[in-house]
Design brief:
Length: 248
Amino acid sequence: MKLTLRVWRQRNTEAPGAMATYEVDGISEDMSFLEMLDTLNEELILAGDEPVAFDHDCREGICGACSLVINGDAHGPERTTTCQLHMRSFADGDTIDIEPWRASAFPVVKDLVVDRSSFDRIIQSGGYISAPTGTAPDAHATPVPKPDAELAFENAECIGCGACVAACPNGSAMLFTAAKVNHLNVLPQGAPERETRVLDMVAQMDEEGFGGCTLAGECATACPKGIPLPSIAAMNKEWLRATRKVRR
């Protein structure tokens, strides 16, 4: 396959960025998208040019590091992570636009790499439980209804990639925050911090500068792990309940 790549290049956070055009040839349809970028970078290095900086780690769809907007879609045309997107999803001769996540809370570090530490601070504000020290309790010591366990697992699948923010027209982090709140709040282990968790995490989300949620639904459509849109409604209910309890 021969492809034309239009890649966002930006030296650092303060420097202005622009799209740069590159031609790559000999791309196999069995390559992953990141392997295709590796091929581009090898050619740039051999030509004495600076390679394109992009985030990656596990390359197995687990870590969520590979954050790219491909032809206007978070992670590309398939509902998966960028590392699991293969070049068979494109055709010979295609022009592919490759950009970083676009959100004020995700400043560009370099080229396609963005700073997602705002997500870390949201989790730090309330994504924990009270854990007594001493002997570990038996796994079955605290009964958990099956529907609650399944709901917790469904929300815990969030890998924090940020596709929900990149896809949202408002740059909202509601789906991410909802997943992190819900997977703890529905379990008995998360009960002691239930109210403070949702209040603190939503407050931190707002402080980070993410946009407001208008339930456009693009976040759930782009999520590679399928976090459902009703998770946001569930978190809103938790937030309202906690707010009313604090006001009493």
